[in-house]
Amino acid sequence: MDALRKASGQLQSYLPSLELNQEHHRRINEQIGEQLSVDEVLQHPEFPHVNWDLKPDRKERIDVAAGRGGPFKLSYELHGHGVKKIIWIMGLGGYMKTWQRQTKDFGHTEGNKYSSLVFDNRGIGESDKPLLRYTTFEMARDVVELLNHVGWTEERSVHVVGISMGGMIAQELALQIPTRICSLNFISTASRIVRTLPYLENIRNRINLMWPKALGDQISKVKADCYSAQWLKKPDETESVVKPFPTNGDRFAAGELTKRMTPGAFTRQGFLCQLYAAGFHHKSAAQLKNLADAVGRERIMVLHGTEDHMIDFVHGKMLLAELGGEESGVTRSFHDGMGHVAPFEIRQKFKTIIAERIEKTERMGK
FRET partner for 134 with CA separation of 20 to 30 A, picked from 66, 143, 144, 292? Predict the structure, then answer.
């Protein structure tokens, strides 16, 4: 516990003193109106089915990080058996089930075309949660070991999709194995954090979410940080097993509650260790130029929403510019009114975007 408080203190001291009850929390909660309480979500008939029973073609827990703090176990699932290989890298506090929409869309609905690799980063889900100083560099090395294990080692064979902290890990991955990457897709991420108030307030809130407070308040804050009010208040758009939730926000709450109620999946130690990695991720303009040179700018996409309150939109614009901008061949995919989580908010459009990226970059050859 002392080590956790020290890590939290380091992150807190990195941030200025800020009002925790941000104006955008109040504004978004006013805009979305009344949503189900925690008890109402738990009692909803769809709650037991919020995580779908998607059978993987392969599932293992493998040893990674021997000689660099490990070995410890990393859990993964491989869905589908197509020749087009996609690895999905999740963000802070998210586990592989958070990708279930994309797992279904690519690894099941089109499982003959795609192989979809999802996994739990160190610190979350079914992977181990060692008490170490996590960095995005070391987490990318975990990913390299996973790719080696499943045999995805050929040049220009892997399509990388990384969201938020997962996009930071994807940057490190691209610097470590640039020629193995066919397409590199950065979703709602940053090369380094500039001092914009929304992000700094939110990251402080994420730290404070790990200390005792009402669960409903925790869920409410995550909603406001990560999703647009317009999407949260819409009727549940996701396919249901028994009965839809009243709103998209209620379904998100059900998924978040399921994660937090699964024994050992979401721990204070693992979360703070991941948060340390995300908070101190830093790639300079020169490093991004080297990344783009090595991977190829035509293979890179930057996708971001203008209403992202977790990693402010300025970070997407900065990342695009420092990779070389559209004029150099980098694909820009900016979305007005969208929040932090494109795979939820624009699921069908997101599927089309990723599928088109795969087709375009595979036509480029090696």
Answer: 292
